C-alpha cells in the first residue's frame, strides 16, 4: 500500500467537486424537543449536528434540499409542500415514484451547490445538506453563518460531518431520519423509513449468514489513476454486504484519509475475489471495467466476473442508496443466497 492521497470521486454530479465534498463528514447528533414558553408558540426542537447546536422553533416552512439524496428524503417524509428549492438537481435523478412531487420545486443549481445569492433569494428557514462542502464560502456558496444570520437552520447529514468521514456507518442515516422526524413533526413517517431500511439490512444479513466471506477490494479509477477505499461508510457497506475487505481503517494508509492512491502491482498482489468500483455514469463504468479487465486478466475478480459497479451517489454518506447498495453488492457476491 502507498501513502494516503486524494481521490477523485464524483460528488454532486461532478467529479471535480468530489474531494472537498467527500472530506466533509461527523459526529452523531442528539435531539430534544421542549415546549415553548408561550403555549401559542410552536414546539421547539434543539439538537447537536456537526458540533453545532441547532434550534428550530416550529416545523420549517421554506426548505431547501441541497442534493437529490436529501431532496428525496424530504419528499418521502411527506414534505413536498414545504420545499422552496432543490440543488445539484441534475447530479442524480430522483426515483420515479417521487420525482413528480418535485416537478414544481425551483431548481437552484444543476451540478453544483447554489450560489450564495440564489440560495438566499428563496429565503429558506431550513437547509438540508449532504456535507459541509455545500457551505464553502470560498466557492461562492452561502456559509452556515450567513444562512443562520438570515434565519435559516442548517442541518448536515450525520455521515457528512467532517469529523465523521473516517468512521461513518450506514446507520448514521437513521440518526438523520429521527432528527428530521422531530424537526418536522413527522415521526411516524421517519420511523417507517427506518423500519423499512432496517428490515432490508436484516434480510441481507440473514441471506449471507455463515458464508465464507470473499475478499473484496473497493477502488476508484479515473483514467489510469487507481485508488483504494478503506474507511468510512464505504467500508461499512462492504462489511454489511458480507465482504472480507482487502482495505480497512486499521491499515496505516487510511489513518488520515479514507482513500489512498495505489499501484496496479499492489492491487494485483492482493488477488481479490471481487472488486467494487464506483462510477458516475455508463461511460465511466465502461471505461473502468475495460481498464480492470485488461490490466488484471489473471485476477480472480476478473476471471470469476466479479467486477461490481455501484453508483457513486449510493456510496455517499447519509442516503437511502446506502441501504440498496448493500443488497446490490451482496447479491453479486453470493447470488446463490438470493
From TrEMBL:
The protein's UniProt keywords, in alphabetical order, are: Signal
Kindly list the organism's lineage: Bacteria, Bacillati, Actinomycetota, Actinomycetes, Micrococcales
Q: Name all Fe/B12 periplasmic-binding domain ranges.
A: 62-337
Concerning InterPro entries, the annotation shows:
ABC_Transporter_SBP, ABC_transptr_periplasmic_BD
Protein name from the UniProt record? Iron complex transport system substrate-binding protein
Write out the similarity annotation: Belongs to the bacterial solute-binding protein 8 family.
Record keywords: Signal included? yes
Signal peptide positions are 1-20
Superkingdom per UniProt: Bacteria
Q: Which Gene3D superfamilies does the record cross-reference, listed alphabetically?
A: Nitrogenase molybdenum iron protein domain (3.40.50.1980)
Amino acid at each position: 500500500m502507498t501513502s494516503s492521497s486524494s481521490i477523485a470521486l464524483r460528488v454532486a454530479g461532478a467529479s471535480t467537486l468530489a474531494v472537498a465534498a467527500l472530506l466533509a463528514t461527523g459526529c452523531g447528533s442528539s435531539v430534544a424537543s421542549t415546549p415553548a414558553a408561550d403555549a401559542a408558540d410552536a414546539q421547539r426542537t434543539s439538537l447537536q449536528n456537526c458540533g453545532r447546536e441547532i434550534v428550530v422553533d416550529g416545523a420549517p416552512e421554506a426548505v431547501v434540499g441541497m442534493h437529490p439524496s436529501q431532496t428525496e428524503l424530504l419528499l418521502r417524509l411527506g414534505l413536498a409542500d414545504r420545499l422552496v428549492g432543490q440543488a445539484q438537481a441534475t447530479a442524480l435523478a430522483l426515483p420515479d415514484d417521487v420525482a413528480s412531487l418535485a416537478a414544481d420545486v425551483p431548481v437552484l443549481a444543476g451540478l453544483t451547490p447554489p450560489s450564495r445569492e440564489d440560495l438566499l433569494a428563496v429565503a429558506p428557514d431550513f437547509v438540508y445538506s449532504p456535507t459541509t462542502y455545500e457551505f464553502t464560502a470560498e466557492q461562492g456558496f452561502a456559509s452556515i453563518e450567513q444562512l443562520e444570520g438570515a434565519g435559516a437552520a442548517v442541518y448536515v447529514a450525520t455521515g457528512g460531518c467532517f469529523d465523521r468521514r473516517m468512521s461513518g456507518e450506514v446507520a448514521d442515516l437513521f440518526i438523520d431520519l429521527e432528527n428530521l422526524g422531530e424537526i418536522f413533526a413527522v415521526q411516524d413517517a421517519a420511523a417507517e423509513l427506518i423500519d423499512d431500511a432496517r428490515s432490508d439490512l436484516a434480510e441481507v444479513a440473514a441471506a449471507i449468514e455463515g458464508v465464507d466471506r470473499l475478499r473484496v477490494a473497493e477502488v476508484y479509477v479515473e483514467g489510469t489513476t487507481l485508488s483504494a477505499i478503506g474507511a468510512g461508510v464505504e467500508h461499512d457497506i462492504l462489511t454489511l454486504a458480507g465482504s472480507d475487505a482487502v482495505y480497512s481503517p486499521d491499515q496505516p494508509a487510511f489513518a488520515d484519509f479514507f482513500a489512498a492512491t495505489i499501484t496496479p502491482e499492489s492491487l494485483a498482489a492482493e488477488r481479490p475475489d471481487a472488486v467494487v468500483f464506483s462510477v458516475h455514469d455508463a461511460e465511466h463504468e465502461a471505461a473502468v471495467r475495460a481498464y480492470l479487465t485488461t490490466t488484471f486478466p489473471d485476477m480472480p475478480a476478473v476471471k470469476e466476473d466479479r467486477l461490481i459497479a455501484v453508483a457513486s451517489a449510493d456510496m455517499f454518506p447519509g442516503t437511502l442508496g446506502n441501504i440498496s447498495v448493500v443488497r446490490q453488492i451482496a447479491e453479486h457476491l453470493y447470488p446463490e443466497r438470493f
